[in-house]
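Quick note —
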Amino acid sequence: MALPESIDASLSFADAKGQLDEWGPQLAEHYYNATITYFDRLTDEVWIFGVKPDEGPVSFVPGTYASLGLGYWEPRCDDALEADIDAKWSKLVRRSYSVSTPMFTSDDYHADHGTADLARCDDLDDIEIYAVLVRPEEDFVPGLTPRLALKDVGDRLFMGRKMAGRYTAEAVTDPTTPLVFLSTGTGEAPNLAMIVELLRTGHTGPIVSAVTARHWSDLVYHDKNLALAERFPNYTYLAIPTREPDVEKRYIQDVVRTEFTPDALGIELDPARVHVFVCGNPDMIGLPDESGDALVYPETTGVVELLVERGFKLDKRRDPGNIHFEEFW
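Predicted structure written out below.
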């Protein structure tokens, strides 16, 4: 896509800065095709926001992701700059985000409306995104979230119209199948989208969702999850803050080792019946290196290793299994 002729993209970022008051709106009009419809800052670093594409209603398969972008010319909430900013200040920084869900369409979701007010995933005005501010490190300067941090309702951005990804519940064809969803942080977003759609469309088998985050305030869907569990007896929600002084520190791996029993959670990890969906921190997931003759797991034991020991199998494009996974970064 050619830039407007009035913009000299060959300038260094420093030389271009004096022109950004004029060029910024032109670049935004050139690239941006969506609008932020709401922006809820749950904490300084954790946000939920809506994105409405210009081209009309949007639909998605729960679990898939959308591409969002902002211009490198946009201001940041920190003083960091990408090392190659001179070569790309007039371009977009993009990142894929799994589409989340508001879960309910009404504010009185503690009342039992059955499935009538559960959020849908088709013909939507906007989609919901769950994001966390990524801060610069010595060898890594994030591009998108430090710019998103300065945005608000009505601001513009880029949204790719095509949703992608194979981390979906497509393999669940029996509505009585027991399902386990495990996530860290924003990894809860695609899991929630699948859970809500499954319940809305009549899944009757047990569904367990275990979610870890640093603090209670980071468990941004906590209240809605409790309401969902009150409404649907087959849904169990397990919230696990890992840095609260009055809560025992444990991780998803600890839950898998000790708590997935009929007595503890009403479900046993039976590989003959259960599908497990794992999303979030790669250390929690723990995918093996398969480049040699044998699987080599990471030094830190992840969920995949624990599940494979129990007889589960990784789901791959040409080799279906019952451990479905999505890594974040």
